[in-house]
User: What shape does this take?
Amino acid sequence: MKKIILVVLLVGIAGIAGIVRSHSSPTNLNRLPGIIHGDTQSAGDAREEIRKNYELSPGASVEVSGINGPVKIETADVKTADVLIERSGSSQEVLSRRKVTIDATAHSLRIHGEKGDAGLLGRLFGSSPTERVTLRLPRQISLLAKGVNGSVVVGEIAGSVEVHGINGKVDIAQASGSAEFNGINGNIAVGLKQLDTNGIELSGINGNIELRLELGLNADLEAHGMNGRVTSDLPNVVVDKTKRGRYTAQIGNGGNSISARGINGNIHLTRLMMAATAPDESKSGN
Assistant: This one.
């Protein structure tokens, strides 16, 4: 009787192994223009590069979302957006489990990562590929970055910025107009040249925040629900704290709002000219 049970178990295991092999067979990827499929470096190592160029109008909106890896954005006085996406995984089948799409017009650029065409077993038990996005963009843009599992490092932009749902450090060399940050698991450093009526909103931040403010910028800061302190080395700025842990400060003559809530870390106010004018890649860990 024991021999019969053993035979049945061996047959069942062999059948399951066959199903797993059928779901794990490499998927052929279409070789589209602008996609460079790197040679397999070794058994279980697959890479892919996507290179694209687009013309963008001044003030165009740029969105980067759903990326499993770091995002670096350099800016310059140009009209063209240069896109480089590097993807890597243990096999071509792993690369097929996710895809990155690019939608572009003269007024917008959207780079979005999402699930690919992997089978059920691959989605349940397989590993996901990693992605590294490097962009060179015009300075006159507005930026939205969300759902990034890695650091987000951005150069100077002459527009607003929104950053949501980031698992990593965020460094914005300079933005203008308004800024919004929420759901960040990492430190934030942002330079602000000017503020419009929408001001700055910071919420749900698990990390320290450095606000680099242009000399002469006027704003009113209010922070509450903090597990940390608010400090400043700006001239003629006094930070007040109430008994309930609420911080307020008038910057310059006061004006548009800097609002912070739900911060697990410290907030430090400093001058923009005291900070580096471009992000330091060596300090931008994932």
